[in-house]
Design goal:
Strand order of the largest sheet: 1-2
Order of helices and strands: HHHHEEHHHHHHH
Keywords: Membrane, Transmembrane, Transmembrane helix
Number of helices: 11
Largest sheet: 2 strands, antiparallel
Organism: Psilocybe cyanescens
Protein name: G-protein coupled receptors family 1 profile domain-containing protein
Length: 373
């Protein structure tokens, strides 16, 4: 068991024990919010998935139903996985608090030493796996819904790199950079796991520096992956919106808002966390930055799962709102149309009909404006 230096202020001992308790309370509050968000998102998504998409022909109806079913196999399990990972972290946090205060908390000093140890050795490995799994899965869960007018065109929610690959016309050359970042992120995750198995509770300054460097590197790479793919997709959407009709630009604006909203808050949180880890003072228990690291880990765990879940809920809520008014003309977004691949030089019948319907609807809209004038 690790030993404490002979002279440690009582105020420092009380501060560390208090921060451990406050972190658990904060995580309890955030997980309560997360539970409500998760339950609400699941309900909204189930409701939006039950919407009967009105199709002009049987071919399009079959394609729409197939896309809707594929969403269930991707969206719901991934959202549930994020929630279970965050909830498991919450359970481990409660266990370590109980271990430090109830089981080994005979005196203030023993409580302090137990809190400083951080729990049994296995909790370090489990906590690291859960924490970085939330980050990796959060990087993967991004929304690729496209809605235009009164019709909702469903696309499966893809992992981040696959979404960028799809939007950029399935170009491996363009998406090679985010793929490299993703592989680097996974490699650092493995390195951090090996370090946790070898080091355990970090008491040696050299081991602490190594562990902190690996953690900060992975967080920075995760931040870079999110920013690069978001910028690439945002640029592609912006370029496509310049070639569309004015009535379709509202759709691209909605996509941009969802995209940026899903990345901005999460990216800011992990950036702050990565910067704090780089500061050498964060490795000393006598520095207030070491306490900030604990709080930031709690925030990253909750925000990492909650942010993409909120985005899915926003899209599902938008779908339910659109379903309130029966569609008169079926339309398809230009982003979806240009994203379809041509097989043997032909387009699917439903895509061809949708584009024709969109053109007819634009002509009708212009005629109505002339009559009003």
């Amino acid at each position: 068991m690790s030993t404490t230096p002979p002279i440690l202020p009582i105020s420092l001992q009380e501060s560390i024990v208090s921060d451990n308790l406050n972190c658990t309370i904060l995580l309890s509050f955030l997980m309560g919010l997360y539970t409500m968000v998760y339950a609400g998102t699941m309900y909204l998504y189930r409701m939006s998935s039950c919407i009967q998409i009105v199709a002009v022909n049987a071919d399009r109806a079959a394609v729409s139903q197939k896309a809707t079913n594929s969403n269930h196999y991707v969206v719901l399990p991934t959202i549930s996985m994020l929630y279970l990972l965050s909830m498991s972290t919450f359970i481990i946090q409660w266990y370590t608090l109980d271990w430090a205060v109830v089981i080994n908390g005979d005196t203030r000093l023993s409580m302090f030493l137990s809190t400083l140890a951080g729990g049994p050795a296995w909790t370090f490995v489990v906590t690291d796996v859960l924490f970085y799994s939330v980050i990796i899965v959060s990087d993967g869960l991004l929304v690729s819904y496209i809605s235009v007018g009164n019709n909702i065109a469903y696309h499966p929610i893809k992992i981040q790199i696959w979404r960028c690959y799809h939007v950029w016309g399935q170009s491996l050359r363009v998406t090679s950079l985010p793929v490299v970042f993703l592989l680097a992120e996974f490699g650092l995750f493995v390195a951090g796991l090996i370090t946790s198995l070898h080091v355990g509770s970090v008491t040696n300054p050299t081991d602490a520096a190594l562990s902190g460097n690996i953690q900060s590197a992975q967080i920075f790479v995760s931040f870079g992956t999110t920013i690069i793919t978001t910028c690439m997709i945002a640029y592609k959407i912006h370029s496509s919106s310049r070639l569309t009709a004015p009535t379709s630009k509202r759709t691209f604006k909605h996509i941009m808002n969802v995209l940026i909203g899903s990345a901005a808050g999460y990216s800011l949180v992990i950036l702050v966390y990565a910067v704090i880890l780089v500061v050498p003072a964060s490795e000393s228990i006598q520095s207030s930055l070491s306490n900030v690291v604990f709080y930031m880990q709690i925030v990253v765990t909750a925000v990492g799962g909650m942010a993409p879940t909120i985005v899915v809920g926003r899209i599902a809520l938008s779908t339910s709102s659109h379903s309130a008014c029966p569609p008169s003309v079926n339309r398809i977004s230009d982003l979806q149309f240009h994203g379809e691949r041509v097989t043997n030089g032909t387009l699917s019948a439903w895509a061809d009909h949708s584009v024709s319907a969109m053109i007819r609807n634009e002509g009708t809209h212009r005629d109505e404006e002339k009559n009003i004038e």
